[in-house]
Amino acid sequence: MVTTTEFVTEKERRYGIGYRPISTVSTGRFVDDSIFMPEKEEVVIERRISVPEQKIERKEIVKEEKKVETEVETGLSVKSKLLVGLYVCVACILSALAMVAGIMIGNRATELSALESQVRTANAIVRVQEAQIDELSSADYIEQKAIENGMVKSSASGEIELLPVNEDKVETTTNLFDNFCDWFSGVIGG
Predict the structure, then answer these.
(1) Higher local confidence (pLDDT), 124 or 24
(2) d(CA 75, CA 95)
(3) How far is it, in rounded angstroms, from Cα 76 to Cα 82?
(4) d(C-alpha 57, C-alpha 84), whole Å
(5) What predicted TM-score, i.e. pTM, was given to this entire model?
(6) Which residues of 118-131 are buried (b: 16+ CB within 10 A; e: fewer)?
(7) Stretch (H or E) spanning 2
(8) Is residue 66 a contact partner of residue 27, using CB atoms and an 8 Å limit?
(9) Which of 43, 54, 51 has its CA nearest to residue 17?
């Protein structure tokens, strides 16, 4: 693509190239820039000329390289490959075991926190019940309930005279086998 630049005069611009004539208007001292026209003006006209491209035939040059057949050991031996594979397998198994252990520890930690929460709740219930037992077993509460149930406070001393108990010996009849067992117990020390 080729670009050319030409200079065009006022008249050529007005009449020859297809521009419409522009009228000049001035207002006082200042001239409106949009309608100001100088005596000679440079206008750049770009013409694009396209040049057809020529097809150039290119021949591909193929170079034949002589392959030198030499035995070069570029890879690992079979034994080395097996050892690397075994190492990768062991590493995968160990990482899987570590993940499983981490999951199990996380689950155990959740269970432990749940049990700790249950223990705290049970301890709170026990404390409340101990406070209720202490309140119910106080002497003032017992006395108040006794009076509500119609009992009268006694001013007598707390001594009670017990009746004598007759301890009668009861005779039991025993047989020969009981006598033998008693004798054998005495011999053994029982």
Answers:
(1) 124
(2) 28
(3) 10
(4) 53
(5) 0.33
(6) eeeeeeeeeeeeee
(7) strand 2-4
(8) no
(9) 43
